[in-house]
Specification:
It comes from Fundulus heteroclitus (Killifish). GO terms for molecular function: enoyl-CoA hydratase activity. Belongs to the enoyl-CoA hydratase/isomerase family. The chain folds into two domains: about 5-75, no CATH class; about 75-125, Lyase 2-enoyl-coa Hydratase, Chain  A, domain 2 (Orthogonal Bundle), CATH 1.10.12.10. The radius of gyration is 21 Å and the shape is flat. The chain has helices at about 15-25, 25-35, 40-45, 60-75, 90-105, 105-115. It has six helices and no strands. α1 packs across α2. With about 130 residues, the chain is mainly α. The protein is about 50% helix and about 0% strand.
């Protein structure tokens, strides 16, 4: 992956000049953009551009299979909580507090604590 538009005497579109520096820092973003450098999956992972990099398999679906594995790790009963840097810290903390307050009185919270104590998988019921 890369922002290679400078090879065409144009600048990256779709906010590339704004988003990349926010992820990897200004100096490294400038280097990648000015040099029109392409990075492979391992380098993209090292830079924090992606969360995972997997070697391709014979059937060409390694990334898909890894994504499914990750999805299975995510508990489907988790509240729909948004973690976002698009709000200021005070607002983010208020959102977190409101979500936490909704979780406290639930039976699922008690089940989660019991399962942790008993070293077993929780059996959530959405209650």
């Amino acid at each position: 992956m890369g922002l290679v538009e400078t090879k065409l005497a144009i600048i990256p579109g779709a906010g590339g000049t704004q988003r990349l520096p926010r992820v990897i820092g200004a100096s490294l973003a400038k280097e990648l953009i000015f040099a029109a450098r392409i990075v492979d999956g391992k380098e993209a992972c090292r830079l924090g551009l992606v969360n995972h990099s997997v070697e391709q398999n014979d059937t060409g679906d390694a990334a898909y299979l890894h994504a499914l594995e990750l999805a299975r790790e995510i508990n489907p009963q988790v509240l729909n909580t948004r973690f976002s840097s698009s709000v200021d810290l005070s607002t983010g903390l208020a959102i977190e507090e409101a979500c936490y307050a909704r979780v406290i009185p639930t039976k699922d919270r008690l089940e989660g604590l019991a399962a942790f104590k008993e070293k077993r998988r929780p059996n959530f019921k959405g209650e």
